[in-house]
Amino acid sequence: MTDHIPCDGAIEVGQCFPLYLYDPAPPNEPPSRIRPPRRPAITPAACARFQTACPDTPLTHTDLFHYIYGLLHHPAYRTRFKNNLTRTLPRIPPPPDAETFRALRAAGQKLGDLHVNFCTATPFPVTFAKGDPARHPLAQSAPATFYRVTKMRLGGTARDKDRTTIRYNDHITLTGIPPAAWEYVVSGRPAIEWVMQRQGLRTDRKSGIVNDANAWARETMENPRYPLDLLCRVITISLETMKIVNTLPELEMD
Length: 254
Description:
The protein is α+β, with helices and mostly antiparallel strands. The chain has two domains: 8-116, no CATH class; 127-243, no CATH class. The chain contains ten helices and ten strands. It has helices at 8-13, 44-51, 61-72, 75-80, 98-116, 138-141, 143-146, 191-198, 213-219, 226-245; strands at residues 20-22, 38-40, 127-130, 153-156, 161-167, 173-175, 185-186, 189-190, 201-203, 210-212. A hairpin with a 5-residue loop joins strand 5 (161-167) and strand 6.
């Protein structure tokens, strides 16, 4: 879920299901007055089809949009269509009753707000087993050095990983990460794992181009500790997501 127009790369390798579609402005309209007209991507016919399942609950396109997002997170739905979702577009069944629809709609809206605004989420209060920024002298005197990350790693050993601990860099080790935070899976792996993989230094084998998350943090975000804050925010997002998912009503999938 995003409130920005997806980049070409995201659309090329994935699917985009917008809330609104924007039509071209009339060619004779002055540039200063151009306001691309928009229309709901979910048509009245689609709303009418789902309305039959909830005759006493008037549905709008935004209601259905949130219902779909909530349904896509339901464990029963993800289990039932696990194989299909890797090959085809998701099929959205109507709700069995109005109560289930309202529950999934409310959950979808909460999840959407949570995921769209992940950058402003409160970082999870991890424990610093090593390198507490509030006490370490480098955190103030040389933050770019202190927070520089090359590759985050789990605690423990190669054979016995400790998911409660993440070695951020040589200066910083985080601990106290709840096991439940790893249950939020995005595209086949925990959201935390995506952050660990992408926030660091990676060199493309073919082009030799170096992707440096530290440069992004300094130059774009103007905050050298951005990778650390992002990791802690995603821990919060993961936990809050699973709290919502675990309260979803039971759903029988044919």
